[in-house]
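hi!! sorry for the late reply, been swamped w classes. u asked for the two structures so here they r. pasted raw, havent cleaned anything up. first the sequence of the first protein and right below it the tokens
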Amino acid sequence: MNHKITVIGLGYVGLPLARLFATKYPVIGFDINKERVEALNKGRDNTLEVSNELLCAALTEKNPSVGDTGLFCSYNIEDIKDSNIYIITVPTPVDKNNRPVLTPLIKASETVGKVIKKGDIIIYESTVYPGATEEDCIPVVEKTSGLKYNEDFFAGYSPERINPGDKEHTVEKILKVTSGSTPEIGKTVDDLYSSVITAGTHLAPTIKVAEAAKVIENSQRDINIAFVNELAKIFNLMEIDTHAVLEAAGTKWNFLPFKPGLVGGHCIGVDPYYLAQKAQELGYHPEIILAGRRMNDSMGQYVATQVVKAMIKKDISVNGAEVLMLGITFKENCPDVRNTKIVDVISALEDYGTSVTTFDPWANPAEVLHEYKIESVNSMPKKKFDAVILGVAHKEFMQIDLSSHLKENSVLYDVKGVFNEIADAKL
């Protein structure tokens, strides 16, 4: 089968996938963000997931035809009408009450519904609860297109496993789960991904199985991190070094090496709510999943409280104290600030009356200001602080002479456990 692929949503998931498929197929990368599309067509990816060299090598100057290879990015729906494979990679966030927001998926489904033809396949990669693809998204495609599911057009689900900022486990090196709305389509979808994923694929028996597999991957990590976060709270009360305990326990071959920390981002801190929402709709209250979420969501306030306690022990006046936060992205060496829990620490510290300066060489200050109303800087402030908090372990922070930024009587709090030797306190 001659494929022409459209990837809808050119963020952290969609762009690397579109670039990879473009090595073997004609690919249209579609996004409603005009500025994003124009930057990509000039060979610039501000998410830093695809290098400028790889992106430029993949790009074509015009909409590629079947039989060609290459990537053309567009915000014009007319450019995607002659594709026969549509892959949706838009985000699936939660609202302020932690309820799933399917609006991006629904809008993307409407877009595909306007162009899909008989025989075409639509594949979803966005993380959802089991059943969302066929119960929430496909009916939108049917209504918009006037076509019948599994008669006129077909569907697949292949959950994304992108790890932002990870240059080792890139998309082609991560085994891919695939599925289809019929056994035949499942095989087609699996063959499509197998042609570019060097790590291999796993064909799940149904779309719901693939959806469920994805949503529990990050739920499992969330629960394990919640466990060690609770251990950190207990061991801090006992004045025991949590990291030393975990290092000792980790000598057993089957001990899972999780570390305490702030759980943010677009996956681990979000996906469990999708499964919990579906369970509650069915009349089941998922106690362990939600308990883990409550624990991890409480850690920002906990870190702020620990910093304040450390300051009080050193007779530092908290009200009006100057605090430096190192990092605001949700993880190290990555510009992604989505659902970062560093903002919880900053908010709590400001509630105590401190003045927080946020330094992050990776984050876009305009994006941080827009998303969180927090002013951040990309260069190290030339002053000394009453407290310095390592919130994110960016490689740049490992080169800083912290002594030149700490007052004679000050606090260094290490959230990530990398400054064990000199930290006054740590998570």
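now the second protein. again sequence first, tokens right under
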Amino acid sequence: MSVLVVGISHNSAPVSLLERVALDSDGVHKLIHDVAACEHVNEVTVISTCNRLEIYADVDRFHGSVEDVSRMLVERAGAATAQMLPHLYVHYDDGAVSHLFHVAAGLDSMALGEGQILGQSREALRLGQELGTVGPALNVLFQQALRVGKRSRAETDIDRAAPSLVSAALERSALVGAEVAGSRVVVVGAGSMAALATATVSRMGAATVTVVNRTATNATRLAQEYGARSAPLDDLAAELAVADIAIACTGATGVLITTEMVAAARTEGSSLSLIDLALPHDVEPEVADLPGVSLINLAELAEELRESDAGREIEGVRRIVGQEVTAFLSARRQASVTPTVVALRSMATAVVDAEMERLEARLPDLDDAARAEVLLAVRRVAEKLLHQPTVRVKELANETGAVSYAAALAELFALDPDAVDAVTRPEGV
């Protein structure tokens, strides 16, 4: 199994580009079918969310497949290749396993630990199974990823990490005189973190809450859920002009709130608390140099979060994911030598059977008891001779390096390649 991931997400691309690759149900189906038709792709499925589009494929060749799969995403965006490619990311083999486990555990989400991605990963597996494009390789990988996600949430409180981040930011804001209660709050964004921020400030008694987002329908939907109002991104400067607190969490790759914008919007003597929860930044750092403007960002919150209960939960999930990645890769490497070990033992069995036939031909009067003793002795000799090589090849499979110990074993014992392949070939093929 060699898994390839080609994707684009809030971590790699601006919202404007993510919107261009957003797919409805039919679009996801077509993408899966198109990728499945690529020459080097054996299995495929897709994780599609409002801020993530990732293709997971089992491939027999890296270079040809990564070019084909990347082209599929570029075509969906309707963008020039040169414009799109810098925003794509690629993970292969061990890196692909690690990435999916991090995604399922909520460590790659805009709102750390959010549970929705676990259901979205489950849906990707179900859809691939339904379309017949997921086989044993991706099935095993996704099933394990789902277990990792469940274990992370069962053994830690990772789902509390994002709320803790928002709360910590608002507490800092209060220290500089910007209490939420009675304040006019602007939330920039409409994703998971923005929803969390909107819910939090609404609960804390903000006088008004305005959701600003590039996509008007998303802003309206979020605003209506919490009794807030919405505004288009073009009105951001005007909204900042009357805000007491602004929380930015769009996940865009470029700065949305510039020093020039804030300076032009604010009147002399007014104050504004800017909270930047995006990575990379939504707010230009130099904004903090303006009179009456304070800036709280992730860098300032990082140490506080790390020392908090939420930070410990995040580290706990990272440890769990690390353990699970190591265990999965170890099991996969050991499984990769199984066909060779089975073929070796089959060869030994065939040798024992041939020698017993030869013995019976030379000693036709050998009684059943004696024959059974001879057979048992020969089998024990073969088993003892094979025991150490088969144990060691499984142990050595976990060591890094260019040497293929399974291939060396097959070469030393002159195993028939067809016999090795037959062990993993589906019945009837």
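hope this helps!! also noticed smth abt the second:
The beta strands are 3-9, 41-49, 52-59, 89-92, 184-188, 208-213, 229-232, 245-248, 272-276, 293-297.
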